[in-house]
Amino acid sequence: MRKEFTESLLKRHTSKNLTILTGDLGFNAFEKLREVMGDFFINAGISEQNMVSVSASLAKEGFESWVYSIAPFIYCRALEQIRNDVCFPKLPVKFVGAGGGYGYGVMGPTHHAIEDYGILLTLNTLDIFIPSFNSDIPNIVKKVGENKNPSYLRLGLDESSNKYDAPPYAKWRQLTYGKGLILIAVGPLASVYVEALLKMEFEVRPNLWCLSELPIYSSDMPENLLKQLNQNGIIWVAEEHVENGSLAKQLLSVLIEKKIKITSFKHFYARKHIYDRYGSQDYLRKKSMLDCDYMVERINNNNNEVSI
Amino acid sequence: MPTKITNKYSRIIRQKLLWMHFVTNTGHIGGNLSSIDIILLLWHEYIGLYDQFFLSKGHSAGALYVALWSKGILSDDSLKSFHGDDTLLPGHPPSNVYKEIPFATGSLGHGLSLAAGSALAKKLKGTNDQIYCLTSDGEWQEGSTWEALIFLAHHKLKNLTIFVDQNSLQGFGKVGDISSMDNLEVKLKGFDVEVITCNGHDFNAMRRAIEVMTEIPKIIILKTIKGKGVSFMENDFKWHYLPMSEREYIKAIEEIN
What we know:
CATH architecture of chain B: 3-Layer(aba) Sandwich
Strand order of the largest sheet of chain A: 2-1-3-4-6-5-10
Number of strands of chain A: 12
Number of domains of chain B: 1
Oligomer: heterodimer
CATH class of chain B: Alpha Beta
CATH topology of chain B: Rossmann fold
Radius of gyration of chain A: 19 Å
CATH class of the largest domain in chain A: Alpha Beta
Structural class of chain B: alpha/beta
Number of strands of chain B: 7
Number of helices of chain B: 10
Number of domains of chain A: 2
Radius of gyration of chain B: 17 Å
Mean pLDDT of chain B: 95
Helix content of chain B: 40-55%
Strand content of chain B: 5-15%
Order of helices and strands of chain A: HEHEHEHHEHEHEEEHEEHEHEHH
Distance between the termini of chain A: 43 Å
Low-confidence stretches of chain A: none
């Protein structure tokens, strides 16, 4: 998604009103951006706390202020700067965290971002954007760019094949239709599951919903989703995030508020930071039972249980 | 309101500061008395319409509020509400209330980066607006101040002047005994910044330091006295926290007079 992000930001850089600060990252991605933006592209060095406060002042002075780093280096290292300097005065700084979830895979747990939106949503004023597909990026960059609130864009990896044509970007999108359960996947996890689920028979295929923005509100839940929830009652949520602060917890509050009767609720989430062994994002997803094979197996088992 | 700050005017403002802290039963007076002179000088003689001041040592909010009062920006009633319920003037400056206070400060180590960001913004816009930032000396124990220093020196933010209120005391003792910032001038000179040390209670010395022309950022280390002007408060770190009793307040006012 970095390539699409860079292209979208380049298009947005139509005037000298846009700045981007990077924490010494962007090799093989930001070279063109650096060349075109000149002084407005600022490599702030390895100093995320300073970078975030600087970004706040740039926003206060009227710049469209973007900040880029490996995700946890922003929201963990500089959380107080995000809270005091950006969120307190509600400045529209745009944070871009690379490697959402287990995105940095075998690079190790210091680079993983599996508690990001749970932490950031506690700051109340910040909006979270989690693209699922590469094709989402232009729309999301525009939306983040125009957002009057602070934003956090969690970049990940679109795992869908070239053959898959994602529907136009929306906060909530239904990707598959069937008579099976309802599966809500956050961000790129939807791209992990969608093609395997499309191969299932309609009678057992889940209704896969993809969510790309947080927080969720009862008022912006799509009518179709609410209808399905009311009719079905079997709801699964998959997200590359720890259980605390998760979408699943937020969703349960909304479902209760909406008086939706739940017959079964399952939550698939990032189990932990520290494992006995490390590996790729896919390896770590398997450890957390978030991978596609496991999800399909669970769906099939669930269908069998239902048919029995 | 004088066009030039004098020692006499400084004494009047000190009395107002003591009054505000006394009527509201508020502490943090020591660091306010060490920094009031530079804050007053900047607001009356240097800060223009588009310039910006960052109080990184947010616990000197009282001095800032009184300086803004002396400029006619805050009223007596506002000062009386200091530190109370329903106030616009909490113990550390809030954001989104007065345009003269651009950010909420109080957690140390933020102001310098915020000031650097503002100075960078002015530079990118091509304006000559000046940015001023007041830090404490203990605050330089925060790692983020050094991040900011590297950044502002690298970007040659010559529109930025940083002040260090070097009263040599912090919350629980002497700076030198806790985590020494001794020879701060030598340390700072290792970066690409102009470093000047002067008496932080001598207006002419401070004017001379501020008016030194440079092509790089400037740091002015102000040798100050915590609790300056009140003998029983001077150089006693307990006045970092304590409010005054009535007897102490009367004695303090007499001494300032």
